[in-house]
């Protein structure tokens, strides 16, 4: 009977060790998922900030173009992606697009 108790104790220890390993594995998977989620949120935040900056630069360019500011003295950047009218709410919901169209018809003075 004593041998049987030792075998039972050994089996319980093995099972407990297995359960512990599974728990550690699940914890590692959960931590990896949290880190992946944080990294993705950070990437999305950086992309949103880059888009906001792009829209701001395009708006500055359009406004200065409409005021006939010489090309070498303008700030911002032209809409080189061609997406400002669709992806920039400040440009889409303002008169800046009309200014850009007017500005394109007028020659730039250097």
Automatic annotation (TrEMBL):
<keyword id="KW-0812">Transmembrane</keyword>
<feature type="transmembrane region" description="Helical">
    <location>
        <begin position="12"/>
        <end position="34"/>
    </location>
</feature>
<keyword id="KW-0472">Membrane</keyword>
<protein>
    <submittedName>
        <fullName>Uncharacterized protein</fullName>
    </submittedName>
</protein>
<keyword id="KW-1133">Transmembrane helix</keyword>
């Amino acid at each position: 009977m004593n041998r049987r108790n030792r075998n039972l104790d050994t089996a319980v220890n093995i099972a407990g060790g297995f359960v512990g390993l599974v728990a550690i594995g699940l914890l590692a998977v959960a931590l990896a998922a949290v880190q992946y989620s944080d990294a993705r949120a950070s990437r999305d935040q950086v992309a949103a900030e880059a888009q906001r900056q792009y829209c701001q630069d395009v708006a500055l360019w359009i406004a200065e173009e409409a005021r006939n500011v010489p090309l070498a003295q303008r700030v911002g950047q032209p809409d080189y992606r061609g997406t400002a009218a669709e992806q920039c709410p400040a440009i889409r919901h303002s008169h800046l697009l009309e200014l850009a169209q007017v500005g394109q018809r007028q020659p730039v003075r250097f």
